[in-house]
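User: For documentation purposes, I need each entry recorded in a consistent format: the amino acid sequence on its own, followed directly by the corresponding structure tokens. There are two entries in this batch. Please keep commentary to a minimum and don't merge the entries.

Assistant: Recorded as requested. Entry 1:
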Amino acid sequence: MDCVDLTKISSSQRSWKIDVQGETMTLGNPAQIMAILNVTPDSFSDGGLHNDLVAARTFAESAVRLGASIIDVGGESTRPGSQPVSVSEEIERVVPVIESIKECGAYISIDTSKAEVAEQSLRAGAHIVNDVNAARDPQMFEILAQTQAPSVLMHMQGTPATMQDAPRYENVLDDVIVFFEERLEEAERSGVSKESIILDPGIGFGKTLEQNLNLLQHLDKIHEHTGRPILVGLSRKSFLPKFFKRDLPAQERDAWSHYFHAQIAHACEILRVHDVQGAHDLVATTALFEGQLNV
């Protein structure tokens, strides 16, 4: 069947309208699809696959046809154990790609924790800043206040190089909620509208298997305490096969990814995924079974 426009079947029970450069992006339930476009040599699943402009543009155009409404461009790997790259190198990786795909028919997000990279990417045509460090760069909130760009703020304990060494929490759910409340307060003090912010609990970023599951089971609690839409990125992550005491290469973890996507598609507003078609069809099928989509 033709690609289903998920924005047409979103429930009115949880719905946000976020201003994106004068356009209105509607987030609701079921979740919208954010396609991962890494232009890095070392990302855990797709490092090196989209490093030239033709490959990146081909991927973006295909992702939109398959149902993605957001393309997330990243120029620095954040896999466990990864090392940071310089600001200049990250800009050189992402800005030409953003310029190349900005007419692809989707919103473009820049996956970066560096304010300068975010600023240059927004100038190049990106619409959203997706920050795994939740704007802890001292200039990030300043850039967001100046541009009024929507942002995703993610929770991470430690840094990508160290985050999985020994994650510890008093209570992971409570700690993540308190972290988000503090970041939202800081955002508003910096002149960033709370209504422009989306939250990401950081599945796999400084969490054990049990802590990841706890967060996924209680996404509604994060929403209740913060009042903000939620993005979840669990696609192909290494914790998935650990439930079964097995392992598989990242590219072979889509079935497990989509099982979890099915469980949370109505508890979050954005799914950040590698397999766009599988995630889109999963969400559309869920809507069909719940009577939100006519055949």
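Entry 2:
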Amino acid sequence: MNIIEITADENVTGTRIDKLLSNEIDNCTRSFIQKLIENKNVLVNNREVKANYKVKPLDHIYISVPEPELIDVTAENIPLDIVYEDNDMLVVNKKQGMVVHPAAGNYSGTMVNALLYHCRDSLSGINGEKRPGILHRIDKDTSGLLLVAKNDNAHLFLSEQIKAHSLTRAYKALIHGNIKDDTGTINAPIGRDEKDRKKMTITYKNSREAITHYNVLERFGEYTFIECILETGRTHQIRVHMSKNGYPIVGDKTYGIKKEKFKLDGQLLHAYKVGFIHPTTKEYMEFESELPDYFSAVLNGIRQKT
């Protein structure tokens, strides 16, 4: 247990305690501080407080930060398509069918299993859990670029870019239908579907803001090849947004058409571009990934018929 004691001065008077502590304590996000407060690991003048407590001058703040715990996941020697790597981070090209995080029914063969083997001792300890610092997820049946932090400072620096919507994340997708406009924005909140908890949906109840920008790349009559740029990154965001607007992604068995003419193992959705400010050099970096062969094969087949 790491014990931290802070005495508030006049410069921070009126600041929410969760915001203050996330700024003052290295390698702790605001959500983690809120968990510490909820678990009674934060005392102000020997009293429990809530996350929205406004700090007063000379408040004595006592914080107990648990040591990071190792996650109970086995390191596995699984080949990774690494596009870029340095001491701070990796950019990995995830293949379709690979799960990112272990969960019920998928405790092995995941991206985390592979990263634990590849990174060895280079694991971030953000938010009380020692792990490879996966910053954002890609669905099992979506392919493409995934950003991974190898240390706590990189994790926090890159996470702030995601929070500020300054991280570039662009996808390519083939959708059913001939979408009306060449460019557009879908701004519709996404939350858990109350009728099917495994699915997400557009809803104003218990939801979060979700914004997707799209550009038409090619039109094929009954299909459209598009680029989608994420402003936010909600679970299944592009899949839900396109489906609810009448243009489901080809191959999407959850939100799309049940019977497809193409024999696909998943949706034709590929995270082809990621761009960010590097945590150490502070320079902008951008990487792109080519479409998987199965995606290109479907596109080329449609082109030949149009």
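Summary note for entry 2:
The chain is about 20% helix and 30% strand.
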